[in-house]
Amino acid sequence: MRYFVLFFMLLGFGYIGYAQEIQYETIENISYVDKTVSDYATEQCKLDIHYPTSGENKPIVLWFHGGGLTGGKKEVPAFLKEKGLVVVGVGYRFAPNVKVEDIIRDAAKATSFIVKNAGKYRGDTSNIFISGHSAGGYLALMITLNKTYLEAEGFDADKLAGIIPFSAQTITHFTARKELGIDEKQPTIDELAPLFWVRKDAPPIVLLTGDRELELLGRYEENAYLKRMLSIVGHKNNKLVEFQGYDHGMVYPGLPVLLREIQHLVKERQ
């Protein structure tokens, strides 16, 4: 499935008009871990939350930033602001200071924190969506497909409304492979690969990638394989969207589609 820029722009304008009357506030640097864990965790494991200050509860989007699990910073994408959503920008620890599995646990803790505190920010816990770009998309898939991470935080991953990762690694993340001395061009599928945890009862999944000829390494093909395997095991609600003409940095053309998919999935659940 391929899309072009004019379509994105029209979608974006529609959402902007939809939410103009609602007032919003952004609160930054909310800790989601116990301060006794470590100074590094206290520094990194923080959230920025953009939320409506009045009206009914709104769908929640957790946004995990990219950066190869070794860098980057939390963000609330500007395009998602004032669109009738509670948007959460998630910070997390980085390798090599911690292992990749510890970073995945951070993602699960952040998700659980939002579930428990959503009422403070007019968030609708029946409509929680997990998203993010590149490494952030990988984290979104890992905490959803491998249910044990969220189970450890007291939450059932199947209660999520949808997973919409942007150009996610679906084989074992290259930073996890680096921990084992495996080159980034040597594909591996083990317990730290979303593909390893393919299951038919996962929440709806929308996979977004750049152009297959322009993407980072084999990122489009990884996502195409995940989609195929989800369908093979009986998962009924998944799709793959390829943005023609865009490389790995396909965040903007993806954001309007993210909004559209959220709107569609919320209506499906009503």
UniProtKB/TrEMBL annotation:
**Superkingdom of the organism of origin:** Bacteria
Q: Where is the BD-FAE-like domain?
A: 47-211
- Gene Ontology molecular functions: hydrolase activity
- Keywords from the named record: Hydrolase
Any coiled-coil regions, as ranges: none
Could you tell me what this protein is called?
Alpha/beta hydrolase
